[in-house]
Design goal:
It holds the Pfam family DevR. It comes from Candidatus Thermofonsia Clade 3 bacterium. This is DevR family CRISPR-associated autoregulator. The structure is a single chain. This protein is 26% helix and 27% strand. It is built from 3 helices and 8 strands, in the order E-E-E-E-E-E-H-E-H-E-H. Helix 1 packs antiparallel against helix 3.
Length: 180
């Protein structure tokens, strides 16, 4: 797959789940007895971690023929569209029960690592306290010659800025630069 996302997991000892009491009210009073079920709905708060890995060089790549099935301009359009969708996913998370449990995102921090060759972009789980330092150390060990770029961010605004710069200034790496 071109895109791989981890489970969003809570950091141990930093997640709390509560159960909230709800009653679904009938819209009209009188008449037939309409049940008004009582239920409890869980809601969690805490610090959560997620990892994502994207192999953008594979956009439009046919694994069987080992060639690109689409033109470079279409690959670039898909590359930019995909990266925008990643940005939008984190800026405004969507999902089940958002109408009743829209999250309050107080902080968003992490690392964006971009690879400009066939080198893998290092991925360390943010469950580790020193994940940012580990990512930077692995990137240096793999080659500090500009083929890997590590950018840290301390909030959603910095993440958005990093992603916009990547969207505007990069194009998908081409596997087999000659004839692929």
């Amino acid at each position: 797959s071109v895109a791989e996302f981890s489970w969003v997991v809570g950091l141990p000892d930093k997640v709390r789940t509560e159960s909230y009491f709800h009653v679904r009210y009938a819209q009209e009073r009188g008449g037939e007895d309409v049940s008004q079920p009582i239920f409890h709905r869980p809601a969690s708060s805490g610090v959560y971690a997620s990892v994502a890995n994207f192999e953008l060089a594979r956009i439009g790549f046919n694994d069987v023929s080992q060639t690109y099935a689409i033109a470079d301009d279409e690959r670039l359009r898909r590359h930019q569209t995909f990266l925008r969708s990643v940005l939008y996913t984190y800026v405004e998370p969507a999902g089940a029960m958002r109408n009743t449990q829209n999250p309050h995102i107080l902080n968003f921090e992490g690392v964006v690592t971009a690879g400009y060759s066939v080198l893998p972009a290092p991925t360390i789980s943010p469950l580790a306290d020193d994940y940012k330092e580990q990512v930077q150390a692995v990137a240096r060990a793999l080659g500090g010659d500009g083929r890997l770029e590590v950018r840290t961010f301390a909030n959603i605004a910095e993440f958005a800025d990093i992603m916009q710069k990547i969207i505007q200034t990069t194009k998908p790496y081409r596997l087999f630069a000659q004839g692929g």
